[in-house]
Amino acid sequence: MQLVEIVGTVLLLAAIWLVGNRRLDRAVVNLTIQALLLTLVALITAVVAGVHHMYGVALLLFLIKVVAMPMAFFWALRRSERVLEMQPVLSPVVATVGAVALVVMVYFAVGSIRLPVPAVMSGLLPVSLSVILLGILTMITHRKALLQVVGLMTMENGLFMLAMASTFGMPFIVELGIFFDVLVSAVIMGGLTHQMKVVFASTDTDRLNQLRG
Amino acid sequence: MEMWFLAIPAVTACLCLFVPSPAWKHRINALGGLLLPIAAMPLIAQVLREGPQVRWGGHLYVDALSALLLMIIVLVGFCAACFSLAYMERERQAGIIDTAKLGRYYLWMHLFLLTMLAAAMVNNLGLLWVAIEATTLVSALLVGFYGREASIEAAWKYILLCSVGIALALLGLILLYFAAMQSGLMTLNWSELLPAAGRFDPELVKLAFIFVVIGFGTKAGFAPMHNWMPDAYSQAPSPISALLSAVLINCALVGVFRFHVLVVRAVPGDFASHLLLGFGIFSMVIAVPFVLLQHDIKRLLAYSSVEHVGLIVAAVGIGSPLALFGATWHLFNHALTKAALFLIVGRLEQQYKTRKIARIRGALARTPWLGAALLAGILALAGAPPFGLFMSELTVVAAGLGAPKGWTGMALLAPLLLAFTGMVYHVGKMVLGMPSLKWQRSAAMVQATSGSPLEWIALLPLALVLMMGIMLPEVVREGLLQAAAVLGGAGR
Questions:
Q1: A181 — contact with chain B (CB < 8 Å)?
Q2: Residue ranges of the NADH-Ubiquinone oxidoreductase (complex I) chain 5 N-terminal domain (chain B) (predicted)?
Q3: Structural domain span for residue B326
Q4: Are B210 and B172 in contact (CB under 8 A)?
Q5: pTM: predicted TM-score of the whole model, two decimal places
Q6: Does B492 fall in a domain?
Q7: Domain edges within chain A
Q8: Which of A131, A146, A148, A170 is best to mutate for the B interface (most B CBs within 10 A)?
Q9: pLDDT (tens digit per residue) in B349-372
Q10: Within 10 A of B309 (CB to CB), how many other CB atoms are there?
Q11: Rg of chain B's alpha carbons, rounded to an integer?
Q12: A139 vs B170: CB contact, 8 Å cut-off?
């Protein structure tokens, strides 16, 4: 299972890169790379642990997260965004340093609680938790609606990785349900982003500031 | 066979989308809303008589707690469907929506009902997660239904906050599954986890529970994750606000409570109860200033939901049989009252063309029936006797005073009293006094929008709450006691 840890770590690096990234199209490329790595994790689990339904999961991951979603994202980008350069809340350097600090903190935190988990999990638990938190950090430090969706998907990638490493995935029917939800949520968020573009003439979530109190 | 009632909302949804005539869309929707309670009743009765029912090869598991939830879903669903008929027809005639949009509204509304029914009955905690996420997705479409700036903002905040929250709940579920696997159980079925929960690793289950409380708690409106709630409730069409506040939060709450039962068995000590008690009291305290200083009637109702959810959660945290009975009773009372109020306020909003509390003056003089309904509803919600909420609040506070830590009761009572004053103050401003001169001049115009008799369905839940305050029927009491027993961990 050492291989899984290596792939997981590469995914973690991708997530760190995402936090400091300044271009919309690169964010989508980053997400595609993450999904590809995740598919790899699923395949490794399927082969090494001999869990057959993980082949199905790998196929679904590939179709939905590597093929369908990036295509939809690029299509939406071409249609609605002229400028691919973003103005994130933090400068790339500060954001990346923050991301690395977050990862270090997660490693210390997981080290200190000492959960009674086997070696497989103890290696991947901090990696997955870091990816999940980096997803949230991405959502906080970017204003564009698309980046918030990308942050959310990064969180989900972290979760999937944890599920595969610790329990060889969830029961298959649950896995199917989760994929369905992920797909539908991407479609709905895409629709909302489009409406935002029509009504506000921009997809900056800064504009969403009417409701308070 | 009796499970085929699940097909009713699905069929209704599709028919409403494809039937061309708006009048028939309305009718089919109302018929679907009416058939659902009738078709679901045998199952609920069977659960109360014979105990938990397992269906569809163990995928569906209906115990008294699910039955309570089912009851709320079908009742409020029925009221919302009938009320939508009048409400949406008026929106259509005002040119706010067109026929195609009407079809989409009914499609999503009935799908929303379907996802909530699924959330109430699935046995597998993973599928419960899937169902709750599905409710978020469908209802986000309904929150953003009007497509205005504010509704898009509300929908975006709603779907993002709840998706992040629910992702954390998934983390909790993964940890629980891992704990189950370590003790040799390859399942997430609640009915199978329950007897084995005592063997789970306490540290893992603790960690899992924290994530689940944060995740499902976001959906249920625990402070400080409640921010989406006032936005979504105020922007959604009123019948949808009724469904969101009366039904949806209870689906998420039951998710938390089912987990809680497992955690209480797996973790010795008071950890889980204290966590719930803390979140409950914190939510109540946070809600109070927003209730007192509110200017928008629908947001007022949303913050009141935060407060009442806090009370229910705190009651489960106290955990004595009296508190658990109070919790289920309060959950039922609150759902019915809040549903009635959102429908009444929906009518009010259409009549007065505003949600601003300050702009609604002298409602008793201007629209006597509506004003009286609003007054009764808000008094019921604030917890005034003789309504059922008064009795259930009293039960929970009494349980709190009897808890090992005596201050618990006081900590519950103080926010309740403050919120009561706030509600009475606001409703006094709205229903009493004389309408302004400007209003009197334009009064003739407003009289023209006559009501439809179906709208008075909004008073049905309120009447039930009144009845439960005066005399709790034996069958309801029995049902609530059984649901409380599930909360207390008395499963198989």
A1: yes
A2: 60-92
A3: 2-487
A4: yes
A5: 0.92
A6: no
A7: 2-200
A8: A170
A9: 888 888 888 888 888 888 888 889
A10: 30
A11: 22
A12: no
